[in-house]
Amino acid sequence: xxxxxxxxxxxxxxxxxxxxxxxxxxxxxxxxxxxxxxxxxxxxxxxxxxxxxxxxxxxxxxxxxxxxxxxxxxxxxxxxxxxxxxxxxxxxxxxxxxxxxxxxxxxxxxxxxxxxxxxxxxxxxxxxxxxxxxxxxxxxxxxxxxxxxxxxxxxxxxxxxxxxxxxxxxxxxxxxxxxxxxxxxxxxxxxxxxxxxxxxxxxxxxxxxxx
Length: 211
Prior knowledge:
- Helix content is 32%, strand content 20%.
- The chain has a domain at 69-193.
- A hairpin with a 2-residue loop joins β3 (135-143) and β4 (146-154).
- The termini are far apart.
- α2 packs antiparallel against α4.
- A 6-stranded antiparallel beta sheet has the order 2-1-3-4-5-6, covered by helices on one side.
- The chain is globular and about 45 Å long.
- The chain is of the alpha+beta class.
- The protein has helices at 16-54, 104-118, 177-181, 185-193; strands at 78-85, 98-101, 135-143, 146-154, 160-165, 168-173.
- It is built from 4 helices and 6 strands; from the N terminus they run αββαββββαα.
């Protein structure tokens, strides 16, 4: 018998490898693109979040930075004052103890007058002073519990004032430019301590004179 040769039907087959490779590449780029998109969105979110979180951390400078001395007059909230007497103190008073006064407006007014006097010092010269009954006031200005300055005010005889802050002392006699710059010094002190005007106490013995 003679074998019949079968006609082999040629099947058309398309090699899927290039397509598969292209699809894989597109799929890969799609995944990468999606990942980059999410990363970009996450980055934007992190930037916004970080900037939003950093905002509350910013602090503003205080309206009145802490100062001392005459630069801190408007920060004074209290003053302690001790009256000293070299001669006889009025009956019923204690010239040694200090008293705290917390009327801020009056405290600042006195502080301002003292600073006005010492920053406009009178020229040094010989003077014929009236009777010095030995009345002086020593005090400390505070901003809450923070010390701003200390002062001494000799209220009788030739009036003298000094203000000390940060280790530096300014002093002057209260006449001429100092008296003009601080015309309410005695009045502002009297408004706080509520004592008789300087010089009304009668001393024991002779009056002291300075020149």
